[in-house]
Amino acid sequence: MSDSAADGHGGDDRSGMRRFYRIITGPTPIRADFLSDQDAGKPPPRNPDRVRYWRGRSFFATVEAARDTIAARQERATARGLMSPRAYIVEVTISPAAPIVYEQSGRNTEHYTLWGDADALLTRVTDVLPGHPDDGDMDDGDVLPTME
Fold first, then answer.
1. For 19-76, what is each residue's pLDDT tens digit?
2. Which DSSP helix (H) or strand (E) runs through 68?
3. Which DSSP string do the residues of 117-148 spell out, in sequence order?
4. Rounded to whole angstroms, what are the CA distances from 100 to 3, 83, 96?
5. Cβ neighbours, 10 Å, residue 34
């Protein structure tokens, strides 16, 4: 891991497990939700310093940071007269031995980039949460069965 599991962010526990949160558009996570921009076939960034992030995936250290990002996206969409798609948040739990590397990235201290196989990330989904706390479809306690 590129970052200490005891760095004080909200997703740590005593066993060294680390939780991260990713925004997705459907209520059931699928492999495509965990593809990097590179794996999804998007063109590489022009800035060579950004290529490594193009190979990773965007996650957040806390549910609140993910929800703040969803709210900001919805606000921008509304300002443009567009509808923002419904958003969900998946919790992914990473063990110290997992073949997944992560580091804090960007200006937002709650934003992380994770590198690893999409299937490895999908099998580590431990919860699916509503993108907005008032969404009635799911409770914060609804847990999907893990595939491990």
1. 999 999 999 999 999 999 999 999 999 999 999 999 999 999 999 999 999 999 989 9
2. helix 63-79
3. -HHHHHTTEEEEEESSTT-SS--TT--PPP--
4. 11, 34, 9
5. 25
The answer to whether residues 45 and 88 touch, using CB atoms and an 8 Å cutoff, is no
User: What backbone phi and psi angles, to 5 degrees, belong to 47?
Assistant: -80, 115
Q: Give the whole-angstrom CA distance, residue 21 versus residue 53.
A: 17
Give the C-alpha separation, 90 to 140, whole Å.
11
Q: Write the DSSP string, 21-36.
A: EEEESSSS--GGGG--
Provide the residue type at 46 as one letter.
R
**CA gap 128, 137 in Å, rounded:** 11
- Sorted by where each begins, the domain ranges of the chain are 18-130
Domain at 18-130, CATH class: alpha beta
In 3D space, the residue among 62, 58, 26 whose CA is nearest the CA of residue 40 turns out to be 58
Distances in Å between the Cα of 119 and the Cα atoms of 29, 31, 39, 81, 82 are 11, 6, 12, 36, 33
